[in-house]
Amino acid sequence: MTTITEPSRTLPHIAGNGDIALELCALSRSFRLNRGLFKAPGEILAVDNVSLRIRRGETLGLVGESGCGKSTLAKMLLGLLVPTAGNVLIEGREINTVDRREMSAHIQPIFQDPYSSLNPRRTVSDVVEVALRLHNIGTPAERKKQVRDMLERVGMPSRTHSQYPGQLSGGQRQRVAIARALILRPDILICDEPTSALDVSVQAQILNLLLALKQEFGLTYLFISHNLSVVEHLVDHVAVMRKGRIVEQGTREQIFSQPRHPYTQALLASVLTPEPGLGIPDITIIP
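Now predict its structure.
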């Protein structure tokens, strides 16, 4: 047993800050904790003093076990949660000073479960087109052409465009979610476990699609996952998160070949291998 211990475009453009697309400055988020009828309320710190920078065109992988604060961080980046402390800068401007419509044209999410994130009462075309209508982009005919072209670009044949999300497979629904995220041609995609709900073979297809789209559209990704194999395949840099804090960050090669922090070493050691006879890794992480 290994024991690990802790060491001490047509849309408004947001004025840039060099080549930094997204910056997190000492970001924290706490939640009120109800301790019961006869105890005073407490507080739990889900994200604790996190600072990160993502350069234009890069993919940063944010990894860590479930419950470490990754999704809370993503919600703050999307403006769905207000930080308790710290700032989020999108292309050099504080996120709370950017109009919500303007921000949505530059940063978009792809969520874990494509079924729950798609309106089941709208057709595939309607799901993707709604953002264009809200931003009043193009004529109805121009919007339909943009939607059709984007859906075909992500691998959705024309026969599926009039279908509803419930008629699609999991992989097809995630392709629709990707098309919806890209229809405004954003600069940044926040990918929160976008393949974890899919079969392994479908995961590979979606990952390859994300790689191709990154090159085609010059995208910047924040890729959140607990699957280290997926992260290694996709990212340029890695940040390792534990208990709301970033404990290590570096290039993909540094993190996967020479991890320095004991928690990172434990994460890598815990990856299951198909090699017969090795069994299940036995890792103990001391709080």
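Residues 119-185 form one domain.
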